[in-house]
Structures
1.
Amino acid sequence: MKKIIHIAAQEYMRNVLKGSFILALLSIPLMIALGVGLALIITNLENDSSPIGYVDLSGLFSDPIELSEQDWKVEIISYETETAAREDLESGKLQAFYVLSQDYDTSNEIHLYYQEEPGQNATRQFNDFIQLNLVAQRYPELADRVVAGDNVVLRSVDGKRELPDNGPPLNIILPLIISFAIVMLILMSSGYMMHAVVEEKENRTMEVLITSVSSSQLIAGKVIGILMIALTQLLSWTVFGILLILIAGQGMGIEWFQEAKIDWYALLAIGLLAIPTFITASALMVAIGSTVTETQEAQWVVSIFMLLFWLPLWTIGMIGDTPHAPLPIILSFLPFTALMTISIRNMFVVVPYWQIIMSAIVQILFALTAIWLAGKAFRLGMLGFGQKISLKSIFRKPVEVRE
Amino acid sequence: MHKTWLVFRHELITSITRRTYLLLTFGIPLLVIVAFVAISLVRDGSTLGEVNRIGYQEEQEIKVEGYIDRSGLIEEIPSDLKDGLLISFDDEASAKLALADGKISAYYLIPDDYIESGYLYYVYPSVTPLSSEGQDWVMRWTLLVNLLGGDQQYAHKVWHPVDLEVHNLDTSAGYDRFSEEDCSKPGYACESNPIVQTIPLATIVLIYIFIAGGASMLLRNVANEKQNRMIEILITSVDPIQMFTGKLIGLGVASLIPTLIWVSTGFTLLRVGGGTLNLPIEFSFPVSLLFGWLVFFLLGYALYASLMAGVGALAPNLKEANQAVGLIMLPMAIGYMLSILPPTIEVPHDGLALVLSLFPLTAPFAMVMRLVIGDVPAWQVLLSAGLLVLSIVIVVRGVASAFRAQSLLSGQPFTVKRFITTMFGGV
C-alpha cells in the first residue's frame, strides 16, 4: 500500500508541477474568456452608439416620444431639412439619417442615407421609434408593450422543457458545458496515463521500477495519481465556474447568469456515464501505451479517440433537429460518444431514463472489457519489452508451459 | 546543386510514398466524392417527393392550432387568417386532448398578465432550440390586432412600419447588409449561395492546414534525423545549407500536391454538382487569384517551415522539438483566427485586415482572404509579398547558422532566447 501511495504521489507531483499542467488547468477558463471576448468584440463592431437623425416630411411625428432606456442606446435627432441632416452626416456627427416621405402614412416609404454601414442597434432603434410613435398616437398606454414585443416561450407538451425565444437559458446549456469539461478532462487524463506507461518504457525506467514493485502496484499507483490530477482539475474548473456565475450574475447583474439552476436529472446522467467512460479511456490508454514502443507512435491513436469524443459536437445540428432519430440514439450507446450525445439530447428534449440506464450499463461493460484488455496488454508489454505488440497477440490464448 | 537535388528527391519520394500521406492526399478527396455521389443519388431519388411535399405545404401552409386566452384579450380572429385556423379552448386539459387527437398541431397559452409581461406560451410537440417549424407569428398577429382594437389596416402599419430605400453616399464602399446580392465572386455579398459565402473562409482553413502540415513535416524530419544520429552521417558529405534547401523544397512540393488535389476536387465537384452544392452561373474564380493563392501559400510555407526547421535543429530531441512548436504555431494560429473573424472578412480592406495582410507572420492567411474577396490594391499585394520574401531571407540565414555542425550536435536544451538569437544570426 505504501508503495502505491508513493507511486501515486510521485505521478501527481511530476505532472502537477509541469507548465503544461498549469496551461491545461487554465485552458477551459481561457477558452471561455476568449469566447466571451470575441463575442464582445463582434457586438462592439456591429453596434454604434453615435446619433442618428431623421427628417419627417410627412409631419406625422411632430411631437415624438422617446424610447425607454436600453443597451447601446442611440440618440435620435430630428432635423427640419435633409440638407442639415446631410451636413451633420458628412461632418461625422451622425452615423446615418432617415427621411420619412411625404406620403409615409399611406406608403410606409422611408429613405436611409449613410456613408458607412450604420450599427445594427441604430437601425433597430429607429424601427422601434417609429413603431412606438405610431401606437402612441392612438393607444399611448400600449405603446411600450407593442414595441417590447412578445416573449414567446416554447413549452413541451409534458411541461418539462421551456425555451424562451431569445435563446436557451443557462440551466439548459450547463449540462453540455459540464460534459464538455469532463470530456476535456478524460482526454487530458488518459493522455497522462498513456505517457506514464510509454515514457517509462521508452527511457527504460520501467525495468528498474519493476524490480521493486509488482506491475499491479505500479498501475494502481499511477491510476490513483492520475485520478487525483483529474480531480484537481475538476475542482479548479468547478470553482472557476461558480465564481464566473456569481460575478456575472450577482456582481455584474447579467440576467442570463442569474437564472442558473441545476438540472439534477441531466447531472445524474452525466455522472452515470462519465465514470465508466473515464475508466474505459484510461484503461485503453494503458493498453495502447503497453503495445507501442514510442510516444510519437501512440499520439496518432489518441487523435482517433479525440475524433470519437468530439463527433457528437460536430453533429449537434442533426441531433438537435431530430433528438429521437436512430443515429442520435445509437451514438447515445456507443462508448466515447455516449456522454456528449446524451448531454446534447438532454439540452433539447428529456432523454428517457431507460436509455440513460441502458447506456450506463453498456459503458460499464466496456469499462470492464477495457480493464481486462489493459491488464493483458500491460503484462505482455512487460514480457516482450521493447517490442511492438500486435492486437492479435493480446487476444491469443497463452501457451501453457509444462515443467 | 546536385546534392540539393538528391536531398530534394529523397525527401519527396519518402514523403509521398508514406501510407498516411497517400491516405490524406487521395483518401479524403475520394471520401468526399463518394459522399457527394451518395448525396446526389439520394437527392435525385427524392426530388419528386420534395416537390409534392412543398406543394402540400403551400396548400396547408398554416396549420390549425388552439389557444387558451386567460387574459381575455382576444375578441376576434383577424379576417386575413382562414376560418377555423385558431380554435379557442376553455382550459388546457381540453387543448391537450385535441393535440393528442391530432385536431390541432400546437396550442398557445396566454396568461392573465399578458399585457404587463408580454409572456406567451407556445406548447409544441417537438420543442428544440434549433427547430424553426413553429408559426407563432399567427398568435402574435392576432394579439396585436386585438390590442389595437381590431383595426387590421392600422395593425399592418404597426407590424411593418418601415419600407426602406437605402442610399449609400460613399460610392467606393464595399458590401454591407443593405447591398444588393453579388454572386459573381466569393464573399458575403452572395446571400443566396452558402458555398460562395464560405469560399473565403474555406480558403484560409485550407492554407492553414497545409502550411501547418508541411512545416510540421520538416520539423519532425529534422528532429528525427537529429535524434537517430542520421544527421551526423549526412553532414559529413552534404553542406548543411544544401541539405536544408533540399528538405525545404522537397517537403514543400510534398505538401503542395495534396493541396492542389483537394482544391481541384472541391472546385470540380462544385462545378458539376447539382442542387444546393452548385455554384451560381455568374460565379468565376479568376486565374490571377489562383496565382496569388499559390504565391502566398509557398511564401507562407517557406517562412513557417524555415522557422520550424530552426526549432528542429536547435532542440536536442523530437520530444523537446514538439514542446517548442507552440512558439511557431502561436503566431500562425493568431493570424488564422483573426483572418476568419467576421469583422475581418466583412471589412477586408481596412484596419485590422490591412495590418494582418502586411505583417509577414499573418500575411499568408490575411492576404489570401483579402485576395479571395477581391479589389486589393496591387501595391499592397506586392508590399506584402516583398515583406514575406525579406522575412524568409532573414530566417533562412538564421536557420543556416543553426544548421552548422556545432549547433546540430551540441545537445543543449531548447530555449526561446537561443532560438531568437540564432534566427537573427547570433550564432
2.
Amino acid sequence: MTKLVEIEIPEDLLRRACAGDVAAQAAVYTATAPAAFALIRRLIANRAMAEDLFQDTMMTMFQCLPEFRGEAPFGAWLRQIAVSKCLMYLRSPWHRARLHLESNDDAEGTYGSSTLVTPAPVAECFDVTKALASLPPTARVVVWLYEVEGYTHGEIAGFFGRSVSFSKSQLARAHLRLREWFEPSRGEETCTSIQSNGRT
Amino acid sequence: MYIDPEQRQNIARRLRSLPQETRQPYDWIEFRRRARERANASSRRGVNGKKYATLAAALVVAVMGVAAWIRLTRPDMSLSAQSDATSGSGAVVIGPPDTVEARAEVAERWLASLPDEPIVVRVGTRATIAGLEDRIAQLDDFLSMARAEGAQPAKLTAIEEQRTRLVNSLVQVRYAETLVSASR
C-alpha cells in the first residue's frame, strides 16, 4: 500500500487530464482516491463528513490541476489539499464550538469520556483504528500529522493558527490516551492496588 | 504528563502500521455525478442570490423614492411664507407668522415695497387708504404712550392686534390697487 505522499502520476497522464481527457482524469482519480480517503478518514472520524471532504478534495484537485508544477510528488501536493480541507472543517466556527466542549472535558481529566470505550483487558487485541478514532479531533489530527505524516510542530501549529506549545501539548495528550488503550494493564494494576488496599 | 520515549515510539509504530489506503467511498462515475450536482446547486444558489439581491435593491430604491416624493410634495407653509415675505414677490402674506407683531411687520414690509402712488389714482380708494393710514398712526401714538406709562401687557396686545387688523386692511386695499394697475 502506498502512502498518499509517495504517489506519483506520470506527466503525460497529468497533461491529458488537464486537457480534459476524461479517461486520464478517471485514471488520476483511481490512482489517488484510496490513499486520499484513507488520510481523510484518519483525520475526520465522522464518515459522512469525511466523504464530503473527500469530494471537496478531489474536486479541488481537478480544478487546480493546471497549477501543479511537479516540484514535489503529486501525492504530496494532493495531501496538502486534503489536510487543508480537513483543518478548515475543524477550524470552522460550528466545529470549534464542539472542540471547545471536548477540550473542557479534557481539562477535567475525564478519560472515561463518551468517545473512549472502556479499555479492553490485556489478553485481547487492541484496535488501533478505534483507539485513534476515540481521540478528540484536534489531538487525533496532531498525532497523525506528526507521527505518521511527518509534519513538524511548527507546521502543525501554523495549520491551527496556534503556538508550537499547543501542538506539543495536544501530541502529549494524544499519547497519554493512546497509551491507556495500548497498555490497559496499567489500569488493571490500579484497580488491583485499590482492591488490595481495600483488603488490607 | 511524562511519557516514556520507548512507549511513545511504540505508539507511533502502531499508528504507522495502519493501512495507508482504504476503499474509496465511490467510483469515478459517482464522483462525476456528485461534482455535477454540486456545480448545479451552486449555480442555482448564485442565480437565486442575484435574484434576491436585485429584489432587495429595487425595494430600497422604491422606499427611498417614496420617501423623497413625500418630502418634496409635503406643503411647508412657514418656509414658503418666509421666502415670499423676504423676496417681496407681491404675494400677500397674512397669517402664517405666529405673533401679532410678526404679522404686522410682514405686512408693513410688503407695503413699504410698493410705490407711493399708483399709476392710476382712484379717489375712493385713495380716501380709504388715507383713512386707514391715519387710524394706524393714531394707534401707534397710543402704543407709544401705553408702553411709556407701563400699561398692562393685555392692553398693549389688544392695541397691537387692532393695529395689525388695520394694516392687513391697508394691505388688501393696496394689493387690489396694484392688481388694477397691473391689469392696465
